[in-house]
Amino acid sequence: MKPGARDVRADAPDPLYEQLAAYAGRPAATAASGKDPVNAPMIRHWCEAMGDTSPAYRGPGAVAPPTMLQAWTMRGLAPDPESDDRTGRSPAYDGLLRLLDGAGYTSVVATDCEQEYLRPLHPGDLITYDSVIESVSPRKTTKLGTGYFVTTRMDVRANGEPAGTHRFRILKYRPVERPTERKMPLRPRPVINRDNAGFWAGVAEHRLLIQRCTRCATLRFPWLPGCNACAGQEWDTVEASGEGTVFSHVVMHHPSFPAFDPSGEGGPYAVALVELVEGVRIVGNVVGVPYDKVRVGLPVRLEFQRMDPDLELPVFRASEGG
Ligand code: ZN
Question: What DSSP element (H or E) covers 110?
């Protein structure tokens, strides 16, 4: 048993395990061959990746690092139609995996491997191998989930001679279901760029800043790079007094968006276009009255409301009961 694993209801019958255990001893791959002979370029890349500078793996008479044993048998990342017939993967192994998948043990993790080296591999050696399903464990529960350990043993030959064995174990498991944390829904983040950064800097200081063209003195909101009245590029700012009235509004019913509903339930909420006494208009939430009491002409006053630890926004509080 693996560390941290424990039997699940050790005494309870497990019909699936009976079926799985019947695969032990059946071939996982038969008469398969490596994609490439043992070769110096792969050895060099391996040594570079591992930082292994041993002279045994270089030059005339070089051998392959023994731990490359599995590398010579790998199928590659993409299926290769011309060589798939040489992978020799058996219907038995596919059947075992299908049985596990079908029973809900759909996840897989490699847990460990053991290798035994019988003779050195040299560039030019032709690799062939057979693989057998050595064992299937009874059902175990690990931190990842409940499942079955499947051990395969690969017997590797070089030019027909036994060269090593590679024992490989996987856990096929059903992932632990973690209750999803109920997170407070967050509002979208504002997109802050060089054209509006000054506005958000003002919000951070609880000031609502309106741009003013320094050529023609026209106020503008939202922030823009140039003046719509005279095309002037230069500007400064004036701070809004905070007084305004609802110029227009909508009530959002659908789609539900809990982050915008003060109750967090995703119910209806009002969005107002507020006309500030300075003359510009700004979109925002009206607070202090129910969404269905917001009306055109409602007097409001600016305040700043913290929506979440990273977001503060200007909102408008109804200054009368509506
Ligand atoms: Zn202007």
Answer: strand 107-117
Flag whether the pTM goes above 0.90.
no
Ligand 1 centroid from CA 277, angstroms: 19
Strands 235-239 and 209-213: antiparallel
Distance 319 CA to ligand 1 centre (A): 33
CATH number 3.10.129.10 is the correct assignment for the domain at 6-175: yes
Structure tokens that stand for 16 in this block: 């699936």
CA angle 54, 58, 63 (to 5 degrees): 85
Domain definitions of the chain by residue range: 6-175, 197-318
Nearest to 242 by CA among 161, 174, 307, 303: 303
The predicted pLDDT at position 11 comes to: 60
Tell how far the Cα of 248 is from the centroid of ligand 1, in angstroms. Answer: 26
For residue 301, how far is its CA from the centre of ligand 1 (angstroms)?
28
d(Cα 153, Cα 114) in Å, to the nearest integer? 9
- Alpha-carbon Rg for the chain, nearest whole angstrom, is 35
| 169: β partners | 112, 151
By the CB criterion, residues less than 5 angstroms from ion ligand 1 are: 213, 215-216, 218, 227, 229-230, 232
Question: 166 Cβ partners below 8 Å, 6+ apart?
Answer: 69, 70, 73, 113, 114, 115, 153, 154, 156
Report the C-alpha gap between 189 and 196 in whole angstroms: 14
Task: Tell me the mean pLDDT per 10 residues along the chain, length 322.
Answer: 50 85 91 92 96 93 94 78 59 90 93 95 96 95 92 96 96 81 78 94 96 97 94 96 96 84 78 96 92 94 91 89 48
Look at residue 3 in the predicted model and tell me its pLDDT: 47
3-state class of 279 per DSSP? Answer: coil
